[in-house]
Amino acid sequence: MRLSCIKLLLVSSLVGLAVPGALAVEPQPEPAQTEQPLAAADEPTPAVEPEPSILDIASTPTQVLPQPEYDLMLMGGGLATCSSMSNRSCLEQTQFSALAKTGNLYWLQQSLLQNFATAEVFSAERKTLQQQLVQLFNRLAAEHTAPLTEQQLVELWRAAPATEQAPDGETLWQQLSDRELNVVFDYLEVPTLSSDGKYRLTEHVDLAQTSDQHSAELYREFVRLAATKASNKGRSAPKLLMVTASSRDPFAAVDFYLDAFRQAGAEVEWLPLTAALQAAMQAQNCQALPQFLADIHGSYRREQVYADLYALKLQACQAGSKALVAKIAAADGIFFNGGDQSLTYQALRFADGSASPELTAIFGAVANKQLLVGGTSAGTAVMSGNQWLAPQLAAVPMISNGDSYHALQYGAVAGPAPWPGCRKENRCPDNLSERQLTYTAAGGLGLFPLGVLDTHFAERGRQARLLVLQQATQTRLAFGVDEASAMLVDLGHYATGLVQMAARGAGEVYVSELQSESSKTQLLAHTYTLTAGDTLVWQAETLPQAETLTPAESSPQAENVPQQVTLTLVPAAAKTPLTEQAEPLHSKSPLFSRDHYRSLSRSLCRSNFHSATVSEPPYLIRLSKDGACSADAEGNLSYRQQLRIISPEE
Length: 650
Known about the structure:
The protein is of the alpha+beta class. Among the domains are: 7-57 and 571-646, no CATH class; 79-91 and 202-376, no CATH class; 105-190, no CATH class. It is 28% helix and 19% strand. The protein has 19 helices and 26 strands. Strands 1, 2, 14, 15, 18, 19, 22, 23, 24, 25 and 26 form an 11-stranded mixed beta sheet that branches. The protein is globular, with a radius of gyration of 26 Å.
C-alpha cells in the first residue's frame, strides 16, 4: 500500500481530505452542543457514535483496592539497560571488570568450518549457497588465525572479493535469511574465556549507571513486588526464577538477567525451562537436548559455547518435571524474557494445548497470592488467554506476528507466525507475508484473561493490528504496553468481578475496547491511555458460574457467555484536567508506524480540537476525544479517545 506524506490542513470538515494524506481537524464544540459526524465526498458517512460503555471518571463510583497486591507485572520490552555488552545504555563514566564479557567471539577454525560444511542446516535448494560460504570462510581463515569479534567477522565477510567459484561476500550476505545467518554465527562461535582460559566471561549489568532510569526502575519494582510475596512467607529478600524460554538462543541472556535482578536486590536463579527441555523430558531423552534446541529453537552448538549453562539444563532434564515444580513452589517471583512467545508457549503447554505440570504449579501459586509473574515483550504477550480463569468463555487469543498495515490489508490468520527471512528461502508457510498478522486462537499461557496483550506498542504503531485482531476474533478488550513501561495486575478478586491494574514506567498502557458497531470495513474502538501512577479498574457485573481461581483447563465447548463489563480510569492524584488547551496538532505519516499515532493522540489531547481525521488511501482514520484529558506537572497524560478506521467496501 502506498502511503503519501501527511499535510497539516487546519480545516473543520472532511472536504479538505481530497488531498491524500491530509489531516482534518474539528474544533472543540461548546458544552451544550452535540457533535455531528463529519462527512467527506466519496467517503461513507461515519455512524453517530453510541454512548460509550467506558464509564466517566467523575460520575461513577468505583471500587479501588486500597492496598492492591499485584500478581502480574507485564512489561512492554525495550528495557535499555547498562551492561558490558550494551555500553550505549550506560552513563559515560561506567567501567566493568576484566571478567565482564563485552561481546561474542568467532573463530574460522578448520574443525568448525568442516562441521558447518557438512551440517544439514540449509535446504536442498540452497546447498550451493552453503558451500560458497565455506569457500569464502576458508579464504579468510588463511589470513586470520585468531578469534574475531562479530564486527570484525562481518566486515571481513562483506568485504571479501568474488572468485571464479563464488560471488563476493556482500552478495552472499544479502542472500542469507535471518535463520541462515543465525546458523552461520552459531557454527563459528566459540566461548569467551578469561585470559588464563579457566573461566567463561559473563555479561555484567550496572543498574545504577543505566542512563534510562525508567528501565532500571522496572527491575527494582519487580523485586519490590516479589518482596511482598516473600514477606508473607517470613523472608526479607525475594527468591526469583528467571526463564529465557522465549529466546532462539536460551543461553545468551542468562548472565544478563541474573546480574540485573541481583543488583535489584533479589536472590535469583535461572530456571532452564524451554521448549527444547520440555520436549526432551516428554521424550525421556535428555541426551537429545542439542537436537531439540536445533529443531525447535534453531539454536546450534550451545553445549560447546555455554558448557556450564548447558550442564545445568541437562541436570534439570535428568531431574525431571517434579524438580522444576518444586523450584516454582519455593519462588516468590518468576520472570519471562522477550523473543518469540510461541517458544515460551511450547515450554509450558503441550501440543494439545493442555498445561504442563510447571504451568499448573504457576497457576496454583498465583491463586494463593504466593507468586509474582512477570514478563517483557514476548514474555508479556504470551500471558494472554482465559484457559485458566474462564475456560467456559470464548477464547482470548495470543497475538504472535504482524504489523498494522499488513493487518489492515490482509486481516488476521489463526496459525503459526512466519519466521523472519522465510521469503528469502521461499519457505513461508501458506505463502504468508513475513509481516502477516497471526495469532494462536486458544490463547497463550492464560494468566491474563481480560483481553489480548501486545508490546513495543506505541513505538511500533501497533494500534491498528490490535484492533484488526479484536474484530476478527470478536475479543472485546486488548491491552498494549509501551517500551520501558509496565502494567501491574491484581487478580485476587477476579472471581468476584474485580481486577485492578496500574501503569508504571516511561511510556503508556493503551486499552482498546471493541464496539459492537465495528465491522471489517469500519473498525471502531473506545480507547484508554494510562501513564505512571494511573489505575484502571475492570468490573464484571455478570460472572459466568465457573469463573473461579482454580487451575482449570480449557474447555473445548467454550461458549461466548455475555458479561456486563465496565472499565474505569482513575488518574494519578497529581493529575488535573487539561483546560483551555490550544496547541497545534502535529502528525506524521504513515500514522501506524513508529510512534506517530501516539504523537497525534497526545497532540489532540493538548489542542482545542475535538477530533482529527487522517487520510491514508485507501483508509480514513479518525481520532476523537472522549472526555477530558488529565496531566501532571511532568506532562504525563491520562485520557480516553475513540479510534475509527474506515476502509473501502469489499
